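Friendly challenge for the regulars: who can give me the structure tokens for this chain first? No prize, just bragging rights.
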Amino acid sequence: MTFRAGVVPRVLLALAALLLAAAPEAVRVVDASGCPPRDPRATAVYPITGYWINPRPDRCETREVVSAIRRLGGDTVITFGSRLTAVRADGAGRLFDARSGQADPAFAGCLDGGRPCYLAARDAVPGKEIRRVFTYVAPEHFGPDVLRCPGLDRRVQSGGRTYYRILLGASCSAGPFDLVLAVTDGDGIGNLLAEAAGHGMKVYPGLPAAPQDPVKPWLPHLPHLDALTAFTRRVLDDYRRRHGASPALAGVYQSFELAMRDRPDDDEVLALYRAQHAVAAAALPGRTIVVSPYWDARRERGFPPAEAGEGFAEIAATRAGAPMAIAVQDGRGTGKVPVYGPGQADERVDPRLEPVVGAVTYRQAYHGSTRDYVEAVASRPVPGVELWVNVELFEPTPVAGECSRTDPLPLRGRASKARVDSQIMAVGGHAAKIIAYRWEPFVVCRDDAHSPSLGESVAAAWNDPLIVRAARSRVDGREGIQVQGHHLRGGTLRISYRQPGGAATVVTAAQERHTPAARPGGPETAWAPFTPAGLDPDHPWITVTAVNGAGRSSTAAHAFRG
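First reply, four minutes later:
Bragging rights claimed.
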């Protein structure tokens, strides 16, 4: 059968129209990418505005995840960097992990012209030494600034996978060389940048992670630092060429963690930061370096809040002139730092923290609360550096029937929305931005088919009022309380305190003033008249919750010294 020009398109259009009319529920509307159209609306704006996610080689899956984050008010996504792993090669070209001694299955199928990729690389530099070999599982495709040496660097298709051979030397002709063999199953970072740009969001791809010390794997292996920085330079030069015009490329994320405390001058992680951040600042000028250190308030192994400020300054000093965001981990998910209010130090710890510190009081187990640590850091600002907070969306251990993380270890449990609300309330008065670890599995997992995920719980109650600051405040000669937080407008403040002698008093006061947020999702303020009938000097705390004009109530109270 033959058709004249123009007939086939008309026939296809007619068939499409019939299908739409006959079974519209079975037709999936797609755009030019083959994916459902984007929906960049933020319909349930919650104070967490960024999440860690995994890059995905599938463009439509990437769009689905980015759209879901955007619906909750997210404007930022962060990825971990893949690790540059030191390996050794045998005479047959097989690669073995330098730390574990195990064969690397990801590279067993790498054949270049029928020869193992390591042997083919050695053949490409006859008479020159390949002194070190590294592997890298790339969540992306590489371009010309990574494969910059003709005849040496190349892309290899083998066994249905894409491999890259990258030779690092003083120049393209001068050895010795370090060999990086990379493998990828798709352009996850490229997909993420494209989808984030389409949703008006920002991306911080992870810097290549440093090889681990063979004896102390929590430290970088500094003898390989030169190879790491050379490889990082190529990757970021490639970002500048291929993605530099993207409005979504906001900066990079430093994947190697450290404790944010006073550290020695010769600290290995700070040495890594200085070297790799200098490369990032030069390759991507003006873009932000994000670091996410942790702190530990446990008395048996942690450090007091005062040390956190010194650690903040030491990390800030590694930025090489680039803007930096230090997104400190709040510690509640791991059980390293608790969330409790003023006057609660002698209460028993939350039952979900007992597997970490035992059935004791907060004062017995910890040097202080999340709020204490955040306030200590906020009191020592550094120009050019923003304080972000990384809220941990999990529990230290799972309980029976609870969806949790199973890989990598350790196992983690799931947090409730009320628990996460309390974390936001503890840090939101000082954080320039609140982000969270992480989207999967903690936001999307369900205990069973009938229970909501954390993300669904947030979407159902996104406008619960959250108070992050409160203080006595006089307005027009009248005593009152001013609160700062989210979704406060309208309604009342419920205020409780103790009078001398211990009598509990509760007052409900209608809001009389409201100042809207300066930016979407930002903090707003509200004021209500209030004059306490004397405060108990032994319990000088005032506790306040809110009911907003939509009838939503705070899930947790905010306490402050009256």
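The longest helix spans residues 225-243. The longest strand covers residues 466-475. Your move, everyone else.
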